[in-house]
Amino acid sequence: MSVIKTEPLTADAFAPFGDVLEAAGDPDLLINAGACGRWHDRARLDFGPDGRAGISVFRATPRDLPYRLDLLERHPDGSQAFIPMAQDEWLITVAPDAGGAPGPVRAFIAAPGQGVNLLRGTWHGVLTPLHAPGLFAVVDRIGSTANLREFPLDPPVTIAR
Amino acid sequence: MSVIKTEPLTADAFAPFGDVLEAAGDPDLLINAGACGRWHDRARLDFGPDGRAGISVFRATPRDLPYRLDLLERHPDGSQAFIPMAQDEWLITVAPDAGGAPGPVRAFIAAPGQGVNLLRGTWHGVLTPLHAPGLFAVVDRIGSTANLREFPLDPPVTIAR
Q1: Which pLDDT value is given to residue A41?
Q2: Which residues span the domain enclosing A94?
Q3: Minimal CB count within 10 Å: which of A7, A37, B4, B44?
Q4: CA-CA distance, A113 to A83, in Å (whole number)?
Q5: Residue A1 confidence (pLDDT)
Q6: A120-135 confidence digits (pLDDT tens)
Q7: What are phi and psi of B119, to 5 degrees?
Q8: What are the chain A neighbours of B55 within 8 Å (beta carbons)?
Q9: Chain B residues close to A57, C-beta within 8 Å
Q10: Which residues of B touch A127 (CB under 8 A)?
Q11: CATH number at residue A130
């Protein structure tokens, strides 16, 4: 089984796939008499012409590395943001599109305090926390379509540090 | 100075002010072959006719209890959700509207894993984490208006457990 090494999650490396949501660098503005920094409007949200934004809560089973990745999915009708509700590392796997199928998989380790927003249509693995409680807020499209494509990886790949 | 005692944050108690975002009770659906619960579409989002959803990151100075509350604010043009990115308690203060000014203040302690979505126009205090890092994702209205009203509390009130 081929092995894919994890990379640190950085805004530059992740830009083709989406946005990193974090308090990095100086805030865009200071509010509340200086008591709060605001990193403003950091996600390229896209819910399509017939969708709307929703906030859901996900709680997923923590996984271990090395991790066997056997499925990618994507949401053709909208972006999807994952906001960790705990200060833990977590794993995110993505791939560029190559003619309707995923291209080479990349794996990122999000540091504590880092969320992501996946651009509409980005191939990605299912939510993979590395620690309990595995709790995330998810901002994605609410609409009437299934908004899901799945692509089994055969053979699977191994994600390792 | 009058003293307001904190209450635990529950969906029922908070309903007039907004939504509690949490993985409480059974999930609305199981996804990812059963590895993830989804508590679906839990926020009454409202960005008005001319606004859109945005995700920002806030980092605020932690406060202590008792806490002196001397200002409430509200956003007339949109809802505002606060999603804690750490497993810590935090404080949220709100008030009903009473003819354009805040009515009696209520104070809630959010447990670890609880976020909130404030309904459009809800009077509330500024973001008040009780622990470092004081990091939150905020889903609120992006638009061209100031979308802010402030109301100084004179005299201030004290929030205490």
Answers
A1: 98
A2: 2-160
A3: A7
A4: 9
A5: 76
A6: 999 999 999 999 999 9
A7: -65, 150
A8: 21, 41-43, 45, 81, 83, 117, 139
A9: 21-23, 38-39, 42
A10: 32, 36
A11: 2.60.120.480
CB A52 within 8 A of CB A139: no
Distance from CA of A53 to the nearest CA of B (A): 7
Over the stretch A58-108, which tens digit does the pLDDT of each residue have? 999 999 999 999 999 999 999 999 999 999 999 999 999 999 999 999 999
Q: Which two tokens stand for residue A77?
A: 């009708």
Q: pLDDT above 70 covers what percent of chain A?
A: 100
Q: A73 with A151: CB under 8 angstroms?
A: yes
Regarding pTM above 0.95, the answer is yes
Indicate the number of domains in chain B.
1
CA-based nearest distance B46→chain A, Å? 9
The residues pairing with A89 across neighbouring beta strands, listed in sequence order, are none
Q: What is the mean pLDDT of residues B65-79?
A: 98
